[in-house]
Amino acid sequence: MGLVKMLVTIVGALAVLMGLLWVGQGLGFIKWPADSFMLGQSEWTYKGAILAAVGLLAIVLVRRSGGQRQ
Question: Mean pLDDT across the chain, nearest whole number?
Answer without folding.
Answer: 91
